[in-house]
Amino acid sequence: MAMSRLAFALSVSAVAGAAASARSVSAQETLGSLARKRGVYVGAAVGGAFWGGDARYRETLKREFNIMVAENAMKFDQVEPKRNQFSWKQADDLAAFAQANGMALRGHNLVWHQSSGWIEAATGMERADMLTALKTHIDSVVGRYRGRILEWDVVNEAVDDNAGLRNTFWRQRIGDDYLDSAFTWAHKADPAALLFYNDYSGEGMGGKSDRIYALMKGMKDRGVPIHGVGLQCHFAASKSFSATDIDKNMKRLGALGLRVSITELDFRVTLPADSAGLAIQRDNYALLLNACLANPNCKSFLTWGFTDAYSWVPGFFPGTGDALPFDKDYKPKPAYDGMKRVLADVTAIRNRNGPGRGALRAAGAALGGIRNALGRWLGLAD
Fold it and tell me: Cβ(301)–Cβ(262) under 8 Å?
């Protein structure tokens, strides 16, 4: 016997209710509150606006996120502008803000070929003196924030665009072993901190990511205390990227016993941004966050800034911008909504036509059970 009109109406009503639930997330929830429920960290980099007069900046930061990282305040030339003379104020401010607001803190970064100030300019320094200066810097900085930093970017961008070890002044004056030394000293200064290698263009599968993988494997084989790899993820929203390849890379790094963190994410769009571009941006943010959540070794997901009012993108990629989850007036963009929905687990990988196929299959199975139960209760059969 065919399903009665009553059973059919009840089934349609249930489907509509499930679909509405899948499309909505409580307005009271924030990225940070949802991340806490998932046992992960979602946050952003903090720049000079933190010390400016825009009160919305700090308010949004503490309301929306559960982890933060300094754009510049912990870099070599900022913290140690002259040898053995340290300037702690800005880094201390960020550490105090994170602690006061229950946020985790990433440290960025200890060793980089840029923003290295006096030590790069001191061309007469030999290997022994360079090692002493680097150890003093790491001991001082990591030691000062011991127990307050979740993840440290110990070495930043040591692999070049041709997938070779970048011939930095660190490498020239110390040798390839500067990486091992930096991680060893950082671990001794704070044994509880998770120590990361951080780089760009190594997010998916390819020559550079292969070189990073080999570098990490070699360090692990030598017993170097390294715990993770940071994937920067500075992407153009209009260009395709492979979430599948990023997932594969996360998994192979996980097989080495390494965590991965999305450390500097932004998806720039062509200006002026239109609804189509912002929809693509939303889907890309959701896809990448979903890939992170699908891998147990990915626990941190940070954008490089959070409001389009303060972004590095337009200055480096002319004609593009609007790369972040909040617009210039701190209004949430579609990207923000897409991230919330993934964190709330009401959609899997979104497409522009609605909930992901996984969510629909799950809803369909549940509703099928309800329909069959109603049919039996009414004495009906399909």
Answer: yes
Residue 17 forms part of a structural domain? no
- The answer as to whether 148 is a domain residue is yes
Nearest C-alpha neighbor of 196 from the set 136, 138, 109, 112? 109
Output b/e per residue, 146-170; b: 16+ Cβ within 10 A. Answer: eebbbbbbbbbbbbbeebeeeebbb
Across the chain, what does the average pLDDT equal? Answer: 87
| 378 domain-assigned | no
Choose the catalytic residue: 64, 80, 157, 203: 157
**Half-sphere exposure of 82 toward its Cβ, with a 13 Å CA cutoff?**
1
Residue 368 lies in a domain: no
157 flagged as catalytic: yes
pLDDT confidence of residue 53: 93
Q: Distance (Å, rounded) from C-alpha 16 to C-alpha 25?
A: 16
Rounded distance, CA 33 to CA 38, Å?
A: 9
Output the domain CATH number for residue 216.
3.20.20.80
Instruction: pLDDT band for 240, please (50, 70, 90 cuts).
Output: confident
Full residue range of the structural domain in which residue 295 is found: 40-345
Query: Alpha carbon of 216 to those of 65, 117, 201, 209: distances in Å?
Result: 30, 27, 16, 10
124 vs 233, residue with greater confidence: 233
The predicted pLDDT at position 62 comes to 98
What SS3 class is residue 79?
Answer: helix
CA distance 153 to 172: 21
Residue length, the chain? 382
Would you give the distance in Å from CA 157 to the centre of its chain?
Answer: 16
Cis peptide before 109 (omega within 30 of 0): yes
Alpha-carbon distance of 206 to 203, in angstroms, equals 9
| Gap between the Cα atoms of 66 and 43, Å rounded | 6
The span from the CA of 121 to the CA of 78, in Å, is: 15
Does residue 264 have an active-site annotation? yes
Question: Could you read off the pLDDT of 131-157 as tens digits, one per residue?
Answer: 999 999 999 999 999 999 999 999 999
Q: How many domains does the chain have?
A: 1
